[in-house]
């Protein structure tokens, strides 16, 4: 196994100097898998610039790759050094999960093969599932006791399920999968439709799987001060345009761009991490796929499903007590059926 360490002396000196200031917090060790890939390339520079934890928190970056991509990851590490980010305490590149996840506080599991035109995300289960079994085991063994993880690599809900089950000592509420990109897409679509700013859209929620069967729900939203249900009442628009536009946006980007979403996925990952660590705004929520420790809204225990969730800075919790109308029920059930099928498929592959 190759283990490579990149010296980052200038940044270390600067980080050491600033850490003497009483306002600086201890460094966060962040492992990014797929560090030579395109999402990784968008994510790493913003992470090093302080976009996730703010300007008072130095970051130690661990770049984890497969052996054949380590050299590219080293090139990325060189560029990171060349930015002279004051908050970047150090960088390590490795192809060994037991090295890459050692003492890691936050694991961003991005590394996996993206889909190609014509594929659904679930088509990646065979290719990607084993990656998350191995990485779950490594996180279990060597990560920090209070590690948190965000799975981005697709199909992200079920990959998070695989990783969580393979990490029996890591509490299940530390695992999450990214549906924030879908959430952000839904916010933009409804803001455009209503002619309001995105900052006037609250309490949109993605339910279910990060797939074409997801349910972007407006029933509890407020849009420019008006109830989202008023917009959803236009069923031709809500069912015929809004839901498919959001749910199939990834495929549309892939078709138009030729490769899947990357910078927008990195941006959504940063939003997810910030809201998790800093807490959601009072009265508002984020969308994230989390482990169901029991049944919520008819979604059975033991899945990684997207819900409206709040964070108190530590824990992501499902928003409870929302009324689920008949239409929403049907969409949520369809998405959960797909999650159950994916879970059964990875069980048959022996990954859980
Ligand atoms: P990419 O092909 O550019 O990069 C993937 C990288 O992962 C490659 O460098 C590859 O070497 C690396 N990799 C593969 N197996 C690995 C392993 N075992 N350990 C470490 N690294 C490994 O792909 P990308 O565009 O960066 O996308 C990465 C993943 O993120 C894909 O699965 C994609 O579908 C997914 N994605 C998810 C969302 C979301 O909203 N959840 C959004 C965008 C992309
Ligand atoms: C997305 O939603 O853009 C990503 O999950 C990539 C994909 O395959 O759609």
What are the SSEs and their pairings?
Elements: E1 3-6, H1 9-19, E2 28-33, H2 38-48, E3 59-64, H3 70-82, E4 88-94, H4 97-100, E5 106-109, H5 125-142, E6 148-151, H6 156-165, E7 175-177, H7 180-194, E8 201-202, E9 205-207, E10 215-217, E11 222-223, E12 226-227, H8 228-232, H9 235-247, H10 249-257, H11 263-278, E13 286-291, E14 304-311, E15 316-318, H12 326-348
Parallel strand pairs: 2-3, 2-5, 3-4, 5-6, 6-7
Antiparallel strand pairs: 1-4, 7-13, 8-11, 9-10, 11-12, 13-14, 14-15
Helix pairs in contact: 2-11, 5-6, 6-12, 7-9
Bound molecules: nicotinamide-adenine-dinucleotide and (2S)-2-hydroxybutanedioic acid.
Residues 114-115, 121, 154, 181, 250-251, 253-254, 260-261 line the site of (2S)-2-hydroxybutanedioic acid (LMR).
Considering the chains and any ligands shown, give keywords for the structure:
alpha/beta, 352 residues, ten-stranded mixed beta sheet, binds (2S)-2-hydroxybutanedioic acid, globular, 15 strands, disordered N terminus, 42% helix, binds nicotinamide-adenine-dinucleotide, 12 helices
Short description:
By secondary structure, the chain is of the alpha/beta class. 42% of the residues lie in helices and 18% in strands.
Please describe what this structure looks like:
This protein starts with a strand and ends with a helix. By secondary structure, the chain is α/β, with parallel strands linked by helices. The chain is 42% helix and 18% strand. Mean pLDDT is 94; it is low at 1-7. A ten-stranded mixed beta sheet has the order 1-4-3-2-5-6-7-13-14-15. Strands 8-11-12 form a three-stranded antiparallel beta sheet. The protein has a two-stranded antiparallel sheet with strand order 9-10. Nicotinamide-adenine-dinucleotide binds next to α2.
